[in-house]
Amino acid sequence: MGGKTQQQSQDRLNTIWNRFTNGTADQKVYVESGSDMAYIYTADTTDVRSEGMSYGMMMAVQMDDQTKFNKLWKWAHTYMYHDRTKDHGSNVRGYFAWKRNTNGSGGDEGPAPDGEFYFATSLLFASARWGDGTGINEYGRYARYILYDMLHREDKYASSSARDPYGAIPMFHPENHLPVFSTMGNDLATTHTDASYILPAFFEVWAIEIEEGEDYWDIWGNNQTQIAADAAFYRTAATKGRRYFETVTHPTTGLGPDYSTWAGQPTGSQQEFRYDAWRIAMNIAMDYAWWAKDPWQIIHADRIQNFFKTTTTGRGGGGVTGHGALYNLNGTLLANNNSAGDHSPGLVGCNTVASLAASNVATATEFVNHFFNTDSTEGTYRYYDGCLVMLSMLHVSGNFKAYFPANRVKSAQITPTSAQFNKNTSHANYKDVVVTMTLNGNSLVNIKNGNTNLTQGSTGTNGYTVSGSTVTIRKEYLATLSTGSVTLTFDFNAGQDRTITISIADGNTGGGASYDFTTNPSVTVTYEGGGLTATVANGALHVVKTGNNTTPYFILPFNVGAMSSYSTIRIVIKTASGDVTYKDILVKACAGTTWSGATEIARLNNNNWSVGTKDVPRTGGASLSGDILIGFALNNTNPYDVEITRIELLP
């Protein structure tokens, strides 16, 4: 580092960390609260910020200081975190209040995304370095709670009154994949971003940890499709964030604004290079140091270091050792601002981190050497400078690292995870169920139905055969099972077991006790009612109601056997728009394709057709059996549009 030895760099890092946590009253920012908590003190406003708390946790995990990490995390969880299972009256469930008083009260309930981003990543690294503890110190689980809740604002807890408002916006724009500046509005089109919140290096880590953190997949309900989708979303966020940096930063100076539109244009009250924007260069260079996926990042590092090296503005006379702090994007110093000319240590640090991507070694060395000899601010304004100086020193000394669990087992996967079988030998679904295994270095031990091992073999009623990575569940075995639903467990030598649920019918008309429209795209839907269409496309049953004052219904070719085998009808809704409030769900057992005279088996009154899972208890029809179809009526007087991905009858 700038000609310094590794030991000199480490000594300097330790000095800065000691000032930050144990320095004089005018130096330290880390403040203990009781025997088991601590906070990062924002001295200039005498409060505590989620930004600083999450920075402090990242510093602690990078310094391998679990004691300080746990104290900061307990304070943040106790006083800032909004329980993800409760209604808080606004769009804050699963987020952190961005500001609190030092006693944990007051402040502002809304989140600031950079806090969530550093909280989640520091918790992932803590899990990797130290392993998970219990309660809130199950770091890996709480990290993934945040990763899940930043994308999913649906009514996850619809079975109770514990909920935030429907339609609340997520922490990332769902189309352009950029972080929103605030989640507290209701219209994504009117929001903007803060480019210093874009952290591609972190987003790449999140994608990996979602995919490989199998112990926590229950957070996603073990839904492999959703797990893959969320990992892909964050990976795309990293890619699009890199492209956004090219647009939002000035082509000559490399400076970016604090606030900017989705198109990368300065916007709002802070359109210039101000305090937030200092961090853009650090984010870009960290991403290059960790992943090196974007050659443009070298161009930016050279560009911004060249600007600060050659500028003649600033109280110190300009250049590496005397440039100012606040600029217009074209490189002119902000007018009418007493702080514009300050030579702020926090900015010095961020500009030095750009050296990790810079190609001009001589210029980068100038920045490193100057930063090495720059002390952080003391007194009232020590918080922000202190945080950035410590983070920057971690970076340039080679101590800011991405940690992943050592020797993590990657479990095998199987596809599909659900299937249909019909015991009637003339039915199209009287056939073997073929399962493809992705072994990931593991091997299959056996397959179980409950506690009973299936017999491997190709004769009689033996359960299955194996050929390479393909398992065939034999129709001769399935024909011996009772109608309803059976779950078979694939037991592997390492990692997690996998299961397939097979719906078993016995009749001429049916498709079994469940329909997943991704794996059953050709199912025929009978529907009736003015202004209604019901078709299967793109993995969903798409129901569109355009007319008024009719009660539309549609019938699916279920053959359910004995209705008494089922207690619940589950409906999984992918999208819902239009008038979807307070609409009844009526379920009937139908003879043939006739709705008239059918027996009502379930009803859910005044339901809101929001995205998510709806469980409708079966209340009638227990004596029915045989070739029965299932019909659904949606009581509606206004147009709506609903996509349903799965309908299932549950025991």
Q: Concise description?
A:
The protein is α+β, with helices and mostly antiparallel strands and 651 residues long.
Note down, in words, how this protein is organized.
The chain has 651 residues and is an alpha+beta fold. Among the domains are: 137 residues, no CATH class; 93 residues, Immunoglobulin-like (Sandwich); 137 residues, Galactose-binding domain-like (Jelly Rolls), CATH 2.60.120. 27% of the residues lie in helices and 22% in strands. The strands form 5 sheets. Strands 14, 16, 17, 19, 22 and 24 form a 6-stranded antiparallel sheet that branches. A 5-stranded mixed sheet has the order 6-13-12-8-9, with no helix packed on it. The longest helix is centred in the middle third of the chain and has 25 residues. The protein is elongated and about 90 Å long.
Q: What attributes does this structure have?
A:
Immunoglobulin-like, alpha+beta, 22% strand, elongated, Jelly Rolls, 651 residues, single chain, 27% helix, six-stranded antiparallel β-sheet, 24 strands, five-stranded mixed β-sheet
What is the strand tally?
24
- DSSP summary: helix tally: 13
Average pLDDT over all residues:
87
- Secondary structure class reads alpha+beta
β content, as a range? 15-25%
What's the topology here?
Elements lengths: L5 H17 L7 E4 L3 E6 L4 E3 H13 L3 H14 L19 E2 L12 H18 L8 H11 L50 H13 L11 H25 L29 H13 L5 H15 L34 H9 L7 H12 L9 H15 L16 E3 L2 E5 L10 E6 L5 E6 L2 E2 L10 E4 L2 E4 L1 H4 L5 E9 L5 E8 L8 E3 L9 E3 L3 E6 L2 E6 L7 E4 L11 E11 L4 E9 L2 E14 L4 E6 L10 E7 L5 E11 L1
Parallel strand pairs: 6-13
Antiparallel strand pairs: 1-2, 2-3, 3-4, 5-7, 7-11, 8-9, 8-12, 10-11, 12-13, 14-24, 15-18, 16-17, 17-24, 18-23, 19-22, 19-24, 20-21, 20-23
Helix pairs in contact: 1-12, 2-3, 2-4, 2-12, 4-5, 4-6, 6-7, 8-9, 8-10, 10-11, 10-12
